[in-house]
Design a protein that fits this description.
A hairpin with a 5-residue loop joins strand 1 and strand 2 (41-47). The protein has a domain at 10-113: Phosphoribosyl-AMP cyclohydrolase (Ubiquitin-like (UB roll)), CATH 3.10.20.810. The protein has 150 residues and is of the alpha+beta class. The N and C termini lie far apart (42 Å). A four-stranded mixed beta sheet has the order 2-1-6-5. Helix content is 14%, strand content 27%.
């Protein structure tokens, strides 16, 4: 028996309570993690079928690392585990949204509490220079060298 339902017609996917995720050509689905307490976006990563299944089973975020080509249990190395409070899927079942309790000091491997620590101002006119960003978070919540040894 498969963990996920077969994707049949559009109406069934959009209105049924059967979980039938649509993975892309690489077998992945985007997953956004937000802080359950504040609503802040913490990170965006990807899951394959096995990562989604494990996330559902253990109640902690498990992703698929595209760079390492392997499952990645968030926080297994750093201790910055994401406990899933609520797991949602969008209308056509091709994107995941997790409300999580972020344990430890941060979600981002760079040491910030969120991976979204820079902003891209709109209204910039491209001339000879590339677009510029603004730093939104200044203070890191942990030292990645101490946590990851790199």
């Amino acid at each position: 028996m498969s963990a996920f339902a077969e994707r049949t017609d559009k109406r069934a996917v959009e209105e049924s309570l059967l979980l039938a995720p649509k993975f892309d050509a690489d077998g992945l689905i985007p997953a956004v993690a937000t802080c359950a307490k504040t609503g802040d976006v913490l990170m965006l990563a990807y899951m394959n079928a096995e990562a989604l299944k494990k996330t559902i089973e253990i109640g902690e975020a498990v992703y698929y690392s595209r760079s390492r080509q392997e499952l990645w249990h968030k926080g297994k190395t750093s201790g910055h585990v994401q406990k899933v409070i609520e797991l949602r899927i969008d209308c056509d079942q091709d994107a995941i949204w997790m409300k999580v309790d972020q344990l430890g000091e941060g979600a981002c491997h760079t040491g910030f509490s969120t991976c979204f620590y820079r902003a891209i101002p709109t209204g910039q006119v491209l001339d000879e220079k590339p677009y510029m960003m603004e730093q939104k978070l200044i203070d890191k919540t942990f030292d990645p060298k101490k946590v990851y040894g790199k």
